[in-house]
Structures are given as C-alpha cells and as structure tokens.
Specification:
- The complex is a heterodimer of chains A (about 450) and B (about 220).
- Chain A is of the alpha+beta class and about 450 residues long.
- Chain A folds into three domains: about 160 residues, 2-Layer Sandwich (Beta-Lactamase); about 80 residues, Orthogonal Bundle (Helix Hairpins), CATH 1.10.287; about 150 residues, Heat Shock Protein 90.
- In chain A, about 55% of the residues lie in helices and about 20% in strands.
- In chain A, a hairpin with a 2-residue loop joins strand 9 and strand 10.
- In chain A, helix 1 runs antiparallel to helix 4, helix 7 packs parallel to helix 10 and helix 8 runs parallel beside helix 9.
- Chain B is of the alpha/beta class and about 220 residues long.
- Chain B has two domains: about 120 residues, Response regulator (Rossmann fold, 3-Layer(aba) Sandwich); about 100 residues, Orthogonal Bundle (Arc Repressor Mutant, subunit A), CATH 1.10.10.10.
- Helices cover about 40% and strands about 20% of the residues of chain B.
- In chain B, the strands form three sheets. Chain B has a five-stranded parallel sheet, sandwiched between helices.
- In chain B, helix 2 packs parallel to helix 3.
- Chain B is elongated and about 60 Å long.
- Chain B starts with a strand and ends with a strand.
- Classes of the chains: A alpha+beta (about 450), B alpha/beta (about 220).
- At the A-B interface, helix 7, helix 8 and helix 9 of A face helix 8 of B.
Chain lengths: ~450, ~220
Amino acid sequence: MRLWPRALSVRLAVMFALVSTLLLGLIGFSLYQSLQREIAWRDDQALLGRLERMQALLDDSQSIEALRSRPQLYENMLGNRDSLLWIIDDAGQRLIEINPTLMPLPVLPAAERATLGDSQSSELLRLAWLDVTRGDRRLTLIAGKLLSEREQMLAAYRLKLWLALSVGAFLAFGFGWLVSLRGLQPVRQLAMRAAAIDVQHLHLRLDEFKDVSELQALSKALNLMLARLEDGFAQLSRFSEDLAHEMRTPLSNLMGHAQQTLARPRSVDEYQNLLVSNLEEYDRLARMIDSMLFLARTEQADASINRQLVDLHELVEQLCEYFDGTAQECAIELINKGSGTLVADPQLVRRALANLLANALRYGIPDSAVTISSSLCDGVVEISVHNFGEPIAAEHLPRLFERFYRCDPSRNQPDDSGGLGLAIVRSIMHAHGGQVRVTSAQAGTSFSLLFPLDSA
Amino acid sequence: MRILVVEDEVKTADYLSKGLGESGYRVDVALNGLDGQHLVQEHEFDLIILDVMLPGLDGWQLLQIIRRKLQTPVLFLTARDAVEDRVKGLELGADDYLVKPFSYAELLARVRTLLRRGPPREVEQFQVADLHLDLLRRKVTRNGERVTLTNKEFSLLHLLLSREGEVLSRTLIASHVWQMNFDSDTNVVDVAIRRLRAKVDDPYQLKLIHTVRGMGYMLEAQS
C-alpha cells in the first residue's frame, strides 16, 4: 500500500496541513505555557497578600482570641470554597481554621519569611506560610488555595486548543487542496496540450506559460525536445522514403529485364546476360542493405568502437596500395603525407578514408594528385583528403553527408556508392566523437576528418 | 563427400543442393530442424550447412544436439549479422558462418576449406601449366620467363594459385590481399586483376585467369 498519495494536489494539501498543525501547535503551546505561568503567579501573589493581611489583622487585634471571635473579618476575605486558612500555635493547636473541604493540616518546615510551596497531600494544593511571634507565642500562618478549579480551567483551555488545532489542520488541508488544485491548473493544461501531440501532429507546440516561471522553463524544454523529435522524425521518414526509392530502381531493373527476356525464347547467351545483369543489381541491393545496417549500428548510442593506437602513415600507405591500380588508371598520383598516431578504431578509420579516397579518385581530374595529409592542432587530429577537380556548388555542401543525397540526381554511375558513402563517413566520425568537414573551391575539394584527442 | 543442408527456405535449399551437387558433393536436404536432427542421427555427413532460423527446432538447438555426439564441421547461415549472433554460433561449436545474402562463390570456398580438414598445406611452389610461383624467393615465371610483379600483385597471384580452380569473390580477394574487410563498391579488385593479367596472361596464348561473370575470378588451366 502506498502511504504517500499519488496526486500532487493531495500531497501539497497534506503538507499544508502538517505545516499549519506544527505552527498552530507551537503557538498554542507557548500561549498555554505563558497563561499557566501567569495564573500561577497571580495565585501566588494572592496567597502572599492574604498572609500579609492576616499578619496585619493580627497586629491590629489585641489577641488571637479576639480575632477568633470576629471571624467575619477574615471570612469574607476568603469567601469561596477553594481558599484555606490556618493559624496554628507552636503546640500545633489550630487557632483559626477555614477549611471547607476539610483538608488535613499540612506539615510544613519553619519559615521566618513568607514561603510558597505545594502540599504533598492527595489534592493539588498551593500553600504560603509564615512563622510570626506574637508576644511569647509562636504562630504559623498558612494560606492555601486548592488548584482543582485552576486545573479544570486549564484542562478546558487545553481541550479548546486541541480542537482549534484539529479544525485548523483540517481547514489547512481543505484550503491547501483547493489552492493546489487551482495552482496546478496550468500543469493540467500542459498535460492536455501534450496529450494532443502525436506522430501526425509533431508540429504542435506547448503554450509557453509566461506568468508561471517554473512551467515556462518546463514548457520551453519540452518544446525544444519536440523540435528535436520532429527533426529526427522528419529525417527518418525522409530516409525511409529515400530508401524505398533507392530500392525501386534496382527492383524495377530486375523485374523489367527478366520479364522482357522471358517474353520469348532466347539464346543461352542472352539468358546468361540477364542473370549477370541481375546479379549486379542484387549486389547493389545487398551493398545498400549492408551500408544501412552499418549506419544503423554505428549510430546507436551504445555502439562500441574498438580503439587502438593507429600509425597514420602506415594506415594511409595501406589505402594507397589498395587504390594504387585505380589511381594509375585515372592517371592520378596518390600522395601520402600522413604522419603521427591516432587512437581510434582502425577498421572504421580505414573505411571512412577508403570512402573519401574512392570519391577523390572518382571526381579528381586526370594528371593531378590526390593528397592525404594529417596534422595535429589544438587537441584535434585532422586527416584531409584533397583532390583537384570541379568545385562542388556551395548549396550542396551542407547536405553532402545526408543519406542518399546526390548533387546531381540523374547521376547514377555503376560504381556509385549508392549515396551512402559520405553518410557512413559522418557516422564513423560521430562514433569517434569527431566530425567531418568539407571545403570546395577552385583549388580543389578537401574532406577533413577531425578526431578530438581527449575522447580517446 | 556428403553434405547435409538444413534450410527451411525452399528456394535456398534448392539452389544449394543443386549447386553443391554440381560441384561433386552428395547433398541431403532437411527443411526443418527435426528432420535435420533425424538425418544427422541416421547418416554420417562430412559437413552440415545449417540455417539458424528454422521452424520447430532452431539452428542453435540443433547445433547443440549435433555437438553432443559429433564433430562434423558445421557452417551456419544467418540473416542477422549482429556480432553476438556470430559469437554465439562459434561458441556453440560451429566452425564457420556466412551472413545472408552471401555470394555462392563465397559459400563454395568456405565449404571447400571446411572439407579440406587438417591444417592447410604449406605449399611453397605453385605450378599451373607453364606458370610457376616460388613463395620463398618471391619469384614468378611464365613459360620460363621471369615476370616482375609488385607486392600486391604477387599476393593476388599467390591467392589465386593457392585456390586453384575455385571461384574467388571480389570481397574475398579484397580482404585477403588488402585486409579491406568491408564490402567496397569500388572496382579496385577488377583493376588489380586487369593489371595482373597484363603481366601474366596477356603475352601468352594460354589464359590462366578467368572471369566468372557475376561471381568473381578463378585461376585454372582450362584446355
């Protein structure tokens, strides 16, 4: 069972109630304490005053006996049932006794001065007493007050306090609940608004609650998140569309070619041609799927890469050897200016550079050079592949690394990378926490891989 | 040599059994795991080609059952090439794997390697027709004349010679000669073969390096 309620408004109301109970309790307790002290002090003063007056009466009368014969002198001064008065001589004889409740005579120590104390008897009794000498007689004056009435009054007061406290807590809960309900109204609005946003309505945004600063921050953050989601979603759907498109071309080639061939009997050669051409298309499809899977895996946040110390000159040399034949056929010279080391996944770096080199050879002009160079600057290792050739138009540059992006939509060379080569380069760089950059001008086109050193 | 193919995809099973039959193997086909298990228990095979996704008893389970008693080499086929899958297969005792879609030449090469059994022979001298390659001296002669090759051309010729008569796919060549273990869409292998041919084949009457259309390249003395 959950003790803590789920609803925020109820939680707030409970907290309101707890806080007000605590505050009311503290105030009530201190008020009660001071009241109790005040009453006790007054009672004590009254008792002391009574002793003084008795003393004065004794002083005015000739003898104690004369005083006893005129009890009205002091009886009216007492006048109620909870006041007690004794005058006792040293033999223990009660010379004057006013004791309506018939309390036993308390045993008290001697006191030269007026002394206050509580009696030990069963009922609560406050006493003030004083020893005086009248002629040769030692008298003890005792004034007392039964505390039962005071106790009853305080008890009633305590009860009222408890009642006030409970009613206060209850009201605090109720009001707190109402206030929280009202205060949380914008949250419900936010929730309603958010509930209306689904895949079809990703363009919707939450209202910004300008007058509620907490909610303003929240709705701003949520809106930013929505913008990112919308972006990612748009990219994803564009991507699936592109993918379907890209698969259509080879599939339609396959279907058309096969149907056309089957339409009438052919020579064995023609059948063989069909199969070979089909295989080329299958290869394209298979490579595309491989590349897609590679991209999907590399872009996963938890994609693990196998970092090792890579000798750049050696790595570039391997690639130059690999592309040596192709380069010679295009009359392009491969220049390895790579140096130093890098901590990265050698397989992935090789793949990224291979894609860049294949492009450089594809678009480089004959009788020129393709240069692979590396440099270290500001904690970033930069590997660049430069080729001479037609500059890429500026409007294409930012989109060059998108999947299936082609500068010239009609171009679809047989050895084209299917529009995924540069996307793969970018995702490899992201996996390394780095980035890829391209510059293109009359002086040629240059792709740079930037590896931050500290990510290693 | 007898091969068992356990594969539920009828078309795949069909072309595998046809192709392997044409290469001179005796092929049995099981279209599900239980039939496969039954055949394995009844007969003796030299190699089992096993699809992972099978109805009833899946490839992993069948592999475990096989490994309880037999050490027959197992080549498994999978459409999922997540690293964990490959590792799982190899841990369960498979000898090799191929990810779909695979090239038939690749499959045939793997089958041959698995059936060769024992450690590969360390051949140092290769002779096909009048082509001779000496691995230790790194020397190639054709018709008694010295042929000068670059390092990579030498490695390529060595690979072709050591797999004489086998079709080698471009992917396999790229990964063996240049350690490029990803499918590259460049024509690097074709260019390299062309250049090798220019030195080894073109000046001579008898051509040894053959293009197998749609599959790859092969070195063989065809009459």
